[in-house]
Amino acid sequence: MEITSQDVLLVIDVQNDFCPGGQLAVAGGDSVIEPIHKIASKFAHIVLTQDWHSASHASFASSHPGKHPFEQIELSYGPQTLWPDHCIQGTNGAEFHSGLQLPQAELILRKGFRPQIDSYSAFFENDHVTPTGLAGYLKERNLSRVFLAGLAYDYCVAYSALDACRLGLPAFVIRDACRAIDLDDSVAKIEAQFAQAGVTLVDTARLSGSAGPP
User: Fold this and answer.
1) Distances (CA, A) of 92 to 15, 16, 135
2) Is 111 a catalytic residue?
3) Which of 5, 25, 90, 189 has the fewest Cβ atoms within 10 Å of its own Cβ atom?
């Protein structure tokens, strides 16, 4: 698959708290870095996302007395999985993993900073209505296909890919450059949604091309 100047690599949440030793570590989370670096030179455009929560975020189990991480509750916008406190603004856990070296990235998009609503997707908050601004950014820059890598495959990567398709942007998830949480069979569930929505799974070996002038 040839990468063109209208493609963007969207690197999702490769942050300390999602890597081994972090507050919400994804198994093998730091192993996405090598395949991301392997393909980065093929893209003229790279965007990084960064989970950026307040200290008492509504998605944290600690914000709901008597509740525990990974339980489900209902919030104003619908069902919400409760998480351990993670990616709190200004903490080391919220920083990008030190092994991730993508100085050529053109945008760092912070999400999940509104205290009362979570944001898995790079495009919308979890109410599926409130935009992050990424769609407008891509449109104004004439970037028309989205390739996604990072953490976690079955949550933030997945919801970003599904929203890209909903917005009419072809979405390609680079499977070997992602790692999953797989909570309550979430991988199988999300891949069924991928098939229905038209999200394409690829791997790094299928991608060719080299970044030209942006």
Assistant:
1) 9, 7, 29
2) yes
3) 90
Q: How far apart, in whole angstroms, are the C-alpha atoms of residue 66 and residue 84? A: 13
- Is residue 43 within 8 Å of residue 8, measured between CB atoms? yes
Say if residue 210's pLDDT is above 90: no
d(CA 99, CA 108): 17
What Rg value do the Cα atoms of the chain yield, rounded? 16
Q: Which residues pair with 73 in a beta bridge?
A: 80
**Residue 136: CA count within 13 A, CB half-sphere:** 6
* CA-based nearest residue to 160, from 11, 19, 59: 11
Catalytic residue among 19, 87, 156, 165: 156
156 is catalytic: yes
87 is catalytic: no
Cβ-based neighbour number of residue 34 at 10 Å: 12
pLDDT, tens digit, for every residue of 157-191?
Answer: 999 999 999 999 999 999 999 999 998 899 999 99
Give the CA distances from residue 204 to residues 148, 165, 189, in Å, rounded to whole numbers and listed in that order: 11, 21, 23
| Tokens at 166, concatenated | 């909903």
The catalytic position among 7, 17, 19, 111 is: 111
Residue type, 38: K
pTM beyond cutoff 0.85: yes
